[in-house]
Amino acid sequence: MTSEEERGLLTSRDAGPVDIVNRDGRGGFLLLGDHAGNAVPEQLEGLGLSKADMMSHIALDLGVADIGRLLARVLDAPFAAQRYSRLVIDCNRALSDDEAITPMSDRVIIPRNSCLQPAEREARAEAIYRPYHRAIADLLDERSLRNRPTIPVSLHSFTPTLAGDARPWHIGVLYGGGDERFATEVLHALRLEDGLIVGDNRPYQFDDTDFTVPYHAIAAGLPYVEIELRQDEIATSDQQAHWATLLAQILTSAAQKIGIQSTSAQ
């Protein structure tokens, strides 16, 4: 057996699917990045896309990896980030959803996603999707064993325009079902900030296409929030630092208002 030998879809030259930052963080949050990365397994040959495509919003949620790491430090919270592109497999979709491996995104055809056989879909699920969700479940179990109250915070970003339509919101707060108290507190606090256009389930509606929060938070009765940041708001390090500071303050305050005390590294 050589170091080059394949282990399913991923080889020894491929990174593991999940990057966990600050695993033992003691703060009251678990930060999640379903679309934080844009890696592609070597065997999939870049999915047949250009480097520009793989650096664009169709391949990943731009800025989320950086925001997540900043928040992990400020909030002393773990951050579980998917390293592989949403175009390989979308970890915020049920495996039964046809869009879990989409053949097209924002009018761009994904050549290696066309006419996939069931075995090919299963290989992506086994190598990338299931390890990510097992990692989240393990983090929640670890924190429960340590009696650490936990609020999952799912971090996403969205492009300023989609299919030619401008999207005016600076940030969106998504929620729908389960314990919505925390999400609505976050929404209220953001709306008090001068100059911010805040979307209430905008630019996306939280619905049955979402998987991560319903599966890990709503099913367990945990308070939660899914946050969408507009990508031109978090394009630079200064912007990212600003948003990390603001979100840390708002998340901490919202947790306290629903009776969950959060420690902070500040």
UniProtKB/TrEMBL annotation:
For this protein, the record's Gene3D superfamilies field holds:
Zn-dependent exopeptidases (3.40.630.40)
Keyword check for Hydrolase, yes or no: yes
Alphabetically ordered keywords of this record:
Hydrolase
GO terms (molecular function) for this protein are: hydrolase activity
| Pfam short name (any one) | FGase
InterPro entries documented for this protein: N-FG_amidohydro, UCP029730
How is this protein named in the record? N-formylglutamate amidohydrolase
The species is Sphingobium algorifonticola
